[in-house]
Design a protein that fits this description.
This protein has 576 residues and is an alpha/beta fold. The chain is built from 18 helices and 16 strands.
Length: 576
């Protein structure tokens, strides 16, 4: 009886003890579950934040799946195992997500949206199925040669692609009517040219095309038109990688040859045969030197800008800052001082006195009406290339690089080239906006590496030993109220070997040209001027130095207007 009584008394204690142990087990289970659940997102966040390795380890397979209710025979073991399995599952999901992200990035890097093809560098990232293969073009080129040999006739070049590109939209309309096109009145100019060329090529089979080649990263290239300022468009001509390698084509070369129309799934005209490269036989290009290997010299041959007695502006430039072949000249100009008109008159003087010189006018970030005005007041032989202020900075950079590469190729062939750049300040701004920023910011918000490529552009001007020269006349803006413009001018200040300063005080008095004679000059001008002419020019400078800017220019203009030429002015003027 005593033992039974003790057992009865111990039963409630045992029940309470078991209940307490059960509560402790449940509490331990909940705490363990919370801890493991909190660690899982941290691991997931770390997996997302850390860079994914090249070879992703596969998650370990889970031996047992926990029950849906979360319970098992061994409650404590199940409560620990389930969060660990969840963590493995989440880690595997994160690895799969990282792989998908990397695949998307690779696809995005290889694919360029169609809307971006007309910006910046142009036709990069073009799908290969819309371009003809090298083997196909080579086969068609052989068939073309056989057809020409059998028939004994050449391709009709009465109307080439270049001729159509030089026409206006109004002039293209009757040509489109003649070819039987319909509903073409609302088409842009480049699309209209493409339709005309396709209709004409369908009748004749082949045409003659010409353009300046721009080579893409994939090795192929496109012939672009200077009439469209080298803007990518549907009338571009495709050049295969094998042709680029075979003829040693370089960016900026002017290539002409037989062109076939695009086929059913293609988008561009294709070059079948290379006839001329910069006006020379393609065989001559193999021994062409590189521009960087040519030896630069001081300018020794002079450009005389004087044309008529009434053109006082160019006569003043000849006496104050003479221009030579290979000059690197800088026109320092505040706003509204007549720099654009001065550039037009200088270009007209070189065109008239030196018809063999190639002249390119590059207008960067310019107003559209200024572009039209420059084209209408320039000779037909002057190439005007422009990028207006409403276009992206990448477009400004692309135009500038095509122009400088084209000029270099001309110099390699022994030509004299002159580039009029308006303005180098805006070009530097475009490079500053286009390049990846280094994190080193100069005064005015200018990146430390932004001026490296504009300086390379300006530094390409040089006279070449044994023939050829590249002259660059650029304008630098000052007194604009922008600290960045001042920094750009200071960086370019010592890079040129000729400077022409324009003064706002002369403009306020309506005295043109607004040239500050005392601040303008050319380095090593003794190499350009006759010794007697140089002596008289020095005496003239001494007289003008005693006057202020306005009085000196008024005196200078009055004396020049009384003579018919600069030589007569220097010989007859009393310099007492």
């Amino acid at each position: 009886m005593a033992k039974t009584k003790e057992a009865v008394e111990e039963a409630p204690k045992t029940a309470r003890k078991r209940k307490t142990e059960g509560d402790e087990a449940k509490t331990t289970k909940k705490v363990t579950k919370k801890r493991t659940t909190k660690k899982a997102p941290a691991k997931a966040e770390a997996a997302e934040a850390s860079p994914a390795p090249k070879a992703e380890p596969k998650p370990k397979p889970v031996a047992e799946q926990p029950a849906a209710s979360g319970g098992s025979e061994d409650g404590s073991q199940d409560s620990t195992q389930r969060p660990q399995n969840d963590n493995n599952q989440r880690s595997g999901d994160n690895n799969q997500n990282n792989k998908r992200r990397r695949k998307k990035k690779r696809r995005g890097a290889n694919m360029t949206p169609q809307t971006n093809q007309r910006q910046g560098g142009g036709n990069s990232g073009i799908p290969s199925h819309i371009l003809p293969s090298d083997e196909e073009l080579e086969r068609e080129a052989r068939e073309l040669e056989k057809a020409i040999e059998s028939k004994g006739t050449e391709i009709d070049d009465s109307i080439t692609i270049g001729v159509l590109q030089k026409m206006t939209v109004e002039e293209l309309a009757p040509v489109a009517d003649k070819e039987g096109l319909e509903e073409f009145h609302n088409l842009p100019k480049q699309d209209l040219i493409f339709k005309i060329l396709k209709a004409r090529a369908a009748k004749q089979g082949l045409m003659i095309g010409e353009g300046t080649i721009e080579i893409m990263q994939d090795g192929f290239g496109f012939l672009r038109s200077p009439e469209q300022s080298y803007l990518p468009g549907p009338d571009d001509i495709y050049v295969s990688p094998s042709q680029v390698r075979r003829f040693g084509l370089r960016r900026g070369m002017v290539v002409s040859g037989a062109v076939r129309p695009p086929k059913e799934n293609e988008r561009y005209f294709a070059l079948l045969r290379v006839d001329r490269i910069n006006g020379h036989d393609p065989k001559d290009v193999k021994d062409l030197p590189n521009f960087e290997d040519l030896i630069p010299l001081h300018p020794e041959e002079r450009y005389i800008l004087e044309t008529t007695p009434e053109r006082i502006e160019t006569r003043v430039v000849d006496l104050v800052a003479p221009l030579g072949k290979g000059q690197r000249a800088l026109i320092v100009a505040p706003p509204r001082t007549g720099k654009t008109v001065l550039l037009q008159q200088m270009a007209a003087g070189i065109t008239k006195n030196y018809p063999d010189t190639k002249i390119i006018v590059l207008l960067v970030d310019e107003r559209p009406e200024e572009v039209t005005d420059f084209k209408r007041h320039s000779a037909d032989t002057v190439e005007v290339v422009a990028s207006t202020f409403d276009e992206q900075s990448s477009r400004h950079v692309q135009v500038a690089e095509v122009v400088i590469e084209k000029a270099k190729r001309m110099v390699e062939f022994g030509d004299d080239v002159v580039i009029f750049l308006d303005s180098i300040t805006r070009l530097a701004r475009a490079y500053n906006a286009d390049i990846p920023h280094s994190g080193k910011i100069m005064t005015g918000g200018l990146d430390a590496n932004a001026l490296q490529r504009p300086k390379k552009f300006f530094g390409a001007a040089r006279a070449i030993e044994n023939g050829g020269s590249l002259t660059i006349i650029g304008t630098a803006l000052v007194d604009t109220g922008s600290r960045m413009d001042e920094v750009i001018f200071e960086e370019f200040k010592g890079t040129g070997n000729s400077e022409l300063h324009l003064d706002r005080r002369l403009v306020e008095k309506r005295v043109y040209p607004a040239i500050d004679v005392s601040a303008s000059g050319t380095r090593r001008e003794e190499l350009l001027m006759d010794p007697k002419e140089l002596e008289l020019a020095y005496k003239l400078r001494k007289i003008l130095a005693d006057m202020n800017v306005v009085e000196s220019m008024e005196f200078f203009k009055a004396r020049l207007s009384k003579s018919k030429s600069n030589a007569e002015f220097l010989m007859t003027m009393s310099l007492g």
